[in-house]
Every structure is written in structure tokens, then in C-alpha cells.
Amino acid sequence: MIQRNLIANYLGQGWVALMGLAFIPLYIRYLGIEAYGLIGLFAVLQAWLSLLDMGMTPTLNREMARFTGGAHSSESILDLLRSIEVVAITVALLLALGIWAGSDWLASDWLRAETLSADVVAQAFVIMGVVTSLRFVEGIYRSCIIGLQHQVHYNVINSCFATLRGFGALVVVGWISPTIEAFFIWQGVVSLLTLCVLGAFTYRLIPKSVRSGRFSIQALQGISRFAGGMLGITFLTLLLTQIDKILLSKILTLSEYGYYSLAAVVASALYMLTGPITQAWFPRLSELHATDNQAELIRKYHQGAQLVSVLMGSAAIVLIIFSEDVLQLWTQDHLLAERGSILLSILALGNLLNGLMWMPYQTQLAHGWTDLATRINLVSVIFIVPAILWVTPLYGAEGAAWIWVCLNAGYLLIGIHLMYRRILTEEKWRWYRFDILQPLLAATGVASISAWVMPDSLTWQVQLLWLSASSVTTLVASAMSSQYVRAALITKIKLRRKVTRSSSTI
């Protein structure tokens, strides 16, 4: 099941990423860089929604996985779902009203728009509030389907609506109304449809019970400790990862913020390579911990960690080294490529370091252990937030990006040791050496050589071929240096040869 879910996650999230990235240059062309800055703020607002859900969605994911392992009855899981639904819908309504109430202030006193009027920006914020509220409730059903390990179906649904969301928005702003308000109205229409489909599918997956779900204080109390821990982690993580974007939205002009948002969204595409892995692995790790199968849990942990290093690591190395080439090929805009390349390299490095920590973090959650991440993030906030407040006004976007790198380097070099003192106590140096260093060093060496020998003046067609070849060779080198990935590839090749020989014999 885990292999099927992994393949489905990569296909599904890869398509979602394509729909999210492919049309950005056209959005900028039709709407302008300032309007794209508002779209960047929309992404920040959605990130903060994970705080407002008070740890409910990751907790629901875990409880649904435990339900598949027999830890819940149909009645108890339905009660939990209905209780979280009531809380989520209430929060969503308050969220929409709050953004509506503050839209004028945000448009006139917070943002520094130069070409968009304050009225247009305020209207965009009002619509943005409705859309984010709908997507907030969507998250409840997404986590249910993922926790129940029906990730193939989820990715089919998600891919269809991502296509409708991305391509439909292009049609709207390109041929109907080239305004930021029209863009967000379309997002709201798609979010409403998505919410209805995901909700109906979730209830279809849960076995029938003698009664329907009921709101239950007891059900919420039963998950309060884990959810409370997740809330603390989420709050501190958001403060660490989003404070730069919040400060920059105030300090920079909206157009400059648009360039930063462009670099950030390209760098965040790296998470599309690690997200499917952790999404597939977390329910399995939770199940293995629930059944006390420690040997298989350790094997799955290293397998997942190496897969993250190979897939996300090789892509990140290529993005860091070839950042200007990637932006130039994608946008066909020299100014965008020049202004965004340094930011892209720095943010990609920070995201790589962050992604390497995802598998250890998912393993902590599978053990129901949230305290460590809370304490580490609290210390990081005390140290990092003053640094951001000092660096950002002096060095702008690049300074804030380097703070992100330093933060994640601290997690990788310092924070991880605390985890290995309590769980997976014999696996630390194996993780460092085989799961991280070997795949990344191989990828860095191959990509660096490719960049060194790359001619200066190339047509875009040859540049694309060179970049594609560099990416493939970097991926292969990283995969061959990884024990589990290499073994899996060799097994697949041998199996394919065996099937081919059997077919030819018949």
C-alpha cells in the first residue's frame, strides 16, 4: 500500500505543482507584478490557517490512521469528525468576518501598493478571506482521506480540481476579466466545489455505523493533548517560517514583494518532492508504532529519509546551482530571472535543509511526541525573531532568506541530537552518513561539474536540454549513492528482466 500511495502522491502532487507553477508568468503578464504580490500574500494567509485549526488536521490524520489499525470504532471516529467539523466551520466564519473587517486597514496602512488602488486591494482581501475560509474547512477532509490511506483517490480528486483552479484562472484573467478580484472569485468557486466533493468522499470511506456522528466534548478532550502539542509546534513553526514574509510585505513595495514571492514559490516546489513521501510514510509509521514493530519502523524510517535526500536533494542542488537558468527558461523574462535568482538559490538551500528534517519530525509525531519540536521551536523563536527584525531592514529580502538557512542548519546540526536520545537511539550516525551526506555529496559533485563545463551562450532549446540532462545525471548519481534507493532500483530492474525473459519464452 505504501508504494502505491507514494506513486499516487508523486503523480498527484507533481501535477498540482505543475498547475500551480506553470501559469505564474502568465498571471504576472495579465495582472502585473503588484497583483502577483497579493497572490503571494494569499499563500501566506493560507499558511496561517494551519494555526487556526488548533492542531486538528494533523491530529485527525493520525487518528484516522489509528482507526485503520483498530484503535477507534466507527462511532467514535464519526463523533470525532463531526466535532472537528463544528469547530472548523465556526473558525472559518470568524476568519472570513475578521479579514472583511480589516481589509481597508490592510489595503491602506499595511501594504505599499504603487499602481493598484486601495479600494481594489481591499476588495481583493475580502474575497481572499472567503476563499481561505473554504480551504480551511477543506483541510479537515483532506487529512481524513490521507489518514485512511486512500491516497490514490485523494490525488485523483486533488489533481482534477488543481487543473480547474489553475487553468480556469488563466482563462478568467486572460479572456474574461484581467483583474485580481476575478482571480480570487474563481479560486472561491473551485474551493466550494472541492469542499463538497472531499466531504462526500470522506463519509463514503468510513464504514457505516448504527448512528450518525455527534458533536462530543469527550471526543475533543481525547485528542486535546496531541492537538495541543501540534498547536504549539504549528504556532512556533509559522512564526519562524512566515515572519520574514510578513515583515517584507510591510517593508518592501508590493512590486518588490512580488519578486520575493516568485522566488519563494519556486523554491517551495521542492516540498512537492518530499511531501508525497512523508504523506505516504506517516500513516505507516503510526501504524508500526501502534503495533510495536520497531524493526520495520526503523527500516521504513531510513528508507524514507534516503528517498527524501535523493529526490528533493538532487532537485534542490540543481535549483541552487542553476537558479538563473531555471527562472530564465520558465519566465522568458531576463529581469525576473536576474532579480530572483540569488533569492531562489538561498531559499532553495533553506528549504533543502528543512526538508531533510521532515522524516525525523514525522517519526516523532508517529510516536505521539510533540514536546521536542515545541521546545526547539521556542528556543529558535527567541533567537531567530530578533535576528530577522535586525537583518531585514538592513539587508532586505536576501538577509531574511539567509536567516531561514541559518535556522534550518541549526535544526540539522543541533536539534536532531535531542530526538536520537529518546527514540531511534542507535540510528543517528547512520542517518547522517547514509541518509544525508552520501546522496547530497554525489548530487553536488555532478551538478557542479555540469555547471562548470556549461557554455556561456546557448539557445533556450539547448539550455533546456543541458539543464534536463544535468538534472537526470544528478538524480542518478544521488540514487546510486543511496543504499535503499539503489537496492530498490536494482530489484526493479531484475524483476523487469525476469518478466521480459518469461514473456519471450512464452
Q: What fraction, in percent, of the residue positions are helical?
A: over 70%
Main beta-sheet strand count, sense and barrel state? none
Mean pLDDT level: 81
Structural class: mainly alpha
What is the ordering of alpha helices and beta strands? Answer: HHHHHHHHHHHHHHHHHHHH
User: Would you report the number of β strands?
Assistant: 0
* Total domain count: 2
Uncertain stretches of 5 or more adjacent residues: none
What is Rg?
Answer: 23 Å
Shape: globular
> Hey, roughly how much beta strand do the residues contain?
under 5%
Roughly how many Å apart are the termini?
A: 30 Å
Q: What features would you describe in this structure?
A:
- The chain is globular.
- It has helices spanning 2-21, 24-31, 33-52, 56-68, 74-110, 118-147, 151-176, 180-205, 217-222, 224-251, 254-268, 271-290, 294-321, 323-331, 334-356, 358-366, 371-420, 428-453, 460-480, 483-505.
- The protein has 20 helices and no strands.
- The mean pLDDT is 81.
- The longest helix has 50 residues, at 371-420.
- The chain is 87% helix and 0% strand.
- It is mainly α and 506 residues long.
